[in-house]
Amino acid sequence: MYEDALVVDGVAHFYSEHPDNYRDKERGPEMGRLSYEGYHKGFAFSGEDKWVMDRERFFGRPDPNLLADCMFAESQTDMAIYHSLPLYGLFNDGGSPMWVAKEVQKMYPGRMLIYGGLSPFMDGALEEIDRMVEEDGIIGIKFYPQDIIDGEIRNWRLDDEEFSFPMIERAREKGIRSIAVHKSQPLGAVHQEPFRVEDVDGAAAAFPDMEFQVVHGGFAFLEESAMQYACFPNVTINFENTSAFLGAAPRKFAWILGSFIAAGGPDRLIWATGATFFHPRPYLQAFMDLEFPEEWTEGWGIPPITDEIKKKIIGQNVIDLLGIDAAAHQAEFKDDRFSKMTEMQEPWTATPWDGEQPDFEAQSIFSGAKA
By the 8 A CB rule, do 360 and 21 touch? Predict the structure, then answer.
């Protein structure tokens, strides 16, 4: 909790960067370097090395304890929504394997919800939606607009009626109402077009009863994203990684946040950190301490950022948008070890996971294909 507000982190991952997991032996290590040096360290709070995970653990095997503790023992976060990733051309296990979230669910019921990563390039993608709903209990679908298939970069658009719409339709048939799509952050030195936001328009217009989350909203293409947010009431903005500007450039995050509030109000903005990419605690605190400069509210049409608005963004918005029964979840975890803690642990101090680890290659959906 933050004061009296429930904190729900809209995106959690365990980034599976172990060298044995790289399916693409050239691009995989480059993604690892970009992830650690460019983002994890590059957007850290200056002079506060304790928020930086040591290299050995960052590139270690997936660790449910590390994810659970950084969220619930080392920060004020109460619940998190895990996004498994479908980057099976880069990583054997997709890059953020679902089994990690399911282990956290077993250990700490009520704390973790799951979006299932889906690759449209996999055989049986529609049937995989069925399986994830029925077996994994997912509450949403996570898409990436790009992957590497047989060594070649493949792009796709969310507004493609023949390629994409059948997946959205199947998700809707199975009771899923939320589609999250990675935007604004290209996967290294690749063409930026797939990571722009314009293709969300067509999907949002075609499926007005579905909610479309623009993940990393505002990190790039801010004006286009703000206009989209203003025009489509079923488009929401997820601040995963965008919130990292609070560590490296807080005034920039303030401008991004203010631009969305001015365009469409604060009620469809979702707090997220992308932990374990970043430790959630300092970014949450920086957000709650954030103020807009007075000249913005006077001359740019940006309303003041109030505590009420902040508390909506850090939890209530995503609860309302996704129809989460927060009281039921709180009842499940009210007596777990995190709820009984009287002070937060130091960052990245979780006891290493000693449970069974799935084999990386066994998780690949492209086991027989050429990397």
Answer: yes
Contact 29, 336 (CB under 8 A): no
Angle at 308 between CA 249 and CA 336, to 5 degrees: 90
Q: How many domains does the chain have?
A: 1
Q: What value does the mean pLDDT take over residues 73-92? A: 96
Cross-strand pairs, 235: 212
Condensed to tens digits (0 to 9), the pLDDT of residues 292-337 reads 998 888 888 889 999 999 999 999 999 999 999 999 999 999 999 9
Asked if residue 104 is part of any domain, the answer here is yes
| pTM higher than the cut 0.85 | yes
**Structural domain boundaries, residue 109:** 8-340
Q: Give me Rg for the CA atoms of the chain.
A: 19
- What is d(CA 238, CA 173) in angstroms, rounded to the nearest whole number? 24
Query: What's the confidence (pLDDT) of residue 368?
Result: 40
What are the helix (H) ranges across the chain?
A: 27-33, 55-58, 64-72, 98-107, 125-131, 165-173, 199-206, 222-231, 245-248, 250-264, 280-289, 294-299, 307-311, 317-322, 326-333
Taking only the tens place, the pLDDT of each residue in 87-140 is 998 999 999 999 999 999 999 999 999 999 999 988 899 999 999 999 999 999
Judge whether 203 lies within some domain: yes
Q: What is the CATH number of the domain that holds 25?
A: 3.20.20.140
With respect to residue 1, please indicate whether it lies within any of the assigned structural domains. no
User: What's residue 366's pLDDT?
Assistant: 64
Contact between 181 and 197 under an 8 Å Cβ cutoff? The reply is no
The rounded distance, in Å, linking the Cα atoms of 232 and 264 is: 9
| Adjacency order of strands within the sheet including 178-182 | 8-12, 79-83, 112-117, 140-143, 178-182, 211-215, 235-238, 269-270
215 lies in some domain: yes
